[in-house]
Specification:
The protein has 142 residues and is mainly α. 56% of the residues lie in helices and 0% in strands.
Length: 142
């Protein structure tokens, strides 16, 4: 079941994209599998018992730590590091299984990729401090 940390997000993204395009009769679809995977990972990190087992199975990982590792890698790839823009663009396309089919970015230094994570909670709902710490440190979430 467990796959390498970055592969878990890539597999999830591929399956998600395939499912959504199939359900939309293969019309053009625009979505961010990385954003969806990160949001679901943030939810998974707060899950317990059977829900946690099912969500880990979706990502084909065996622990929350595996998801944290994937999240850290994705956050590094999409970080706004001006000195490494060219390699960041290349790393972002490496996350996609069919990236070789994508057109090359002619001037990678002119492209800025940013990924922002935020968790919204129902008013009055209490969140555990250890969960908030995990979101801040592993998912760079506010």
């Amino acid at each position: 079941m467990a796959v390498a940390s970055t592969e878990s997000f890539a597999h999830f993204g591929s399956k998600l994209f395939a499912t959504i395009t199939r359900e939309n009769n293969f019309q053009n679809v625009f979505l961010s599998p990385a954003s969806i995977a990160l949001a679901m990972s943030m939810c998974t990190a707060g899950a317990r018992h059977e829900t946690l087992k099912q969500m880990l199975k979706v990502f084909e990982v065996s622990s929350i730590k595996d998801l944290e590792n994937s999240a850290n890698h994705v956050m590094q790839v999409f970080s706004n590091n001006r000195e490494k823009k060219s390699s960041t663009i290349q790393s972002a396309t490496d996350l996609l299984p069919s990236a070789s089919d994508l057109p090359k970015v002619p001037n990678p230094s002119s492209v800025t990729l940013r990924l922002v994570n935020c968790l919204y909670v129902q008013k009055g709902f209490t969140i555990r401090d250890d969960y908030l710490d995990l979101l801040k440190h592993s998912f760079h979430s506010a």
